[in-house]
């Protein structure tokens, strides 16, 4: 019975963690560039029932001690592309992240391409962090000023600025990846940091679209289905605890007599 209590508690903890994951996904289902998270379930220690004083019919029988969840892992699948027609909105179709430079000079990475132009004519994210551009032909932040409608970006990430009636290439927007499913960790606000900065590489295995944003890759119908299943599993574990508690009460009453 003690094993039953332990198994039920571990099952409730595991299912509660799964519900937390589902809640997180549903809360961010409309977040631009959000990548859903999930957890896996792992069996805890299995014990053999073939031992002295324990009569069994099957000597190979064993009993588990419950389950636990793995660490949260992220699904980097492509989200739907949403046309906005805003020149400062960018999306990545394929692998890769935009590089962001914070005000303190540190860098981070994001799939959220809802950018804008700040007062200095720079392309920035919603928090005022600069989008990293590689300027060419002597161009830089000082002599290159963007407005909401004076630049174009092609699928390869080349940036063209309209000057004197024609478009001149002034920079490129590189995209980056890191090897491994868990190579980037979330730091909040749709930003990521690499687990190992030496593991970050430039990639061209993607297209960049201007006037388009990438929606989250959360499948709301699937999340609600998973939530119902997980809630039922949680209730079953809770019921097992209640039943075991009632049985302990019956035993204690019998002993008291």
From TrEMBL:
Localisation per UniProt entry: Bacterial flagellum basal body
Single biological process term from Gene Ontology: bacterial-type flagellum-dependent swarming motility
Domain Flagellar basal-body/hook protein C-terminal as annotated: residue spans: 210-254
GO cellular component terms listed in the entry, alphabetical order: bacterial-type flagellum basal body
Family of this protein: Belongs to the flagella basal body rod proteins family.
Pfam families reported for this sequence: Flg_bb_rod, Flg_bbr_C, LlgE_F_G_D1
PROSITE patterns the record matches: FLAGELLA_BB_ROD (PS00588)
Keyword Zinc: no
Sequence ranges assigned to domain Flagellar basal body rod protein N-terminal in this UniProt record: 5-35
UniProt keyword annotation of Nucleotide-binding present: no
UniProt domain Flagellar hook protein FlgE/F/G-like D1: residue ranges: 92-159
Annotated protein name in UniProt: Flagellar hook-basal body protein
SUPFAM superfamilies, alphabetized: Flagellar hook protein flgE
UniProt keyword list: Bacterial flagellum, Cell projection, Cilium, Flagellum
């Amino acid at each position: 019975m003690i094993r039953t209590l332990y198994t039920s508690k571990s099952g409730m903890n595991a299912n509660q963690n799964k519900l937390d994951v589902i809640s997180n996904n549903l809360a961010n289902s409309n977040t631009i560039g959000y990548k859903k998270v999930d957890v896996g379930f792992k069996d805890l220690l299995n014990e053999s029932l073939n031992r002295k004083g324990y009569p069994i019919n099957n000597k190979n029988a064993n009993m588990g001690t419950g389950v636990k969840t793995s660490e949260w892992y992220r699904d980097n699948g492509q989200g739907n592309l949403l046309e906005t027609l805003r020149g400062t909105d960018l999306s990545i179709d394929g692998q890769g992240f935009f590089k962001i430079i914070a005000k303190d000079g540190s860098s981070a990475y994001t799939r959220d391409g809802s950018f804008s132009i700040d007062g200095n004519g720079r392309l920035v994210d919603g928090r005022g962090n600069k989008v990293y551009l590689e300027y060419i032909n002597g161009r830089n932040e000082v002599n290159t000023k963007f407005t909401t409608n004076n630049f174009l970006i092609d699928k390869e990430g080349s940036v063209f600025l309209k000057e004197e009636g024609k478009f001149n290439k002034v920079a490129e927007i590189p995209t980056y990846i890191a090897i491994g499913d868990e190579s980037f960790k979330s730091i909040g606000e749709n930003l990521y940091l690499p687990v190992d900065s030496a593991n970050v590489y430039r990639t061209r295995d993607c297209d960049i679209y201007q006037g388009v944003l990438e929606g989250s890759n959360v499948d709301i119908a699937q999340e609600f289905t998973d939530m119902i299943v997980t809630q039922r599993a949680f209730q079953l574990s809770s019921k097992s605890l209640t039943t075991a508690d009632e049985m302990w009460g019956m035993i204690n009453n019998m002993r008291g007599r």
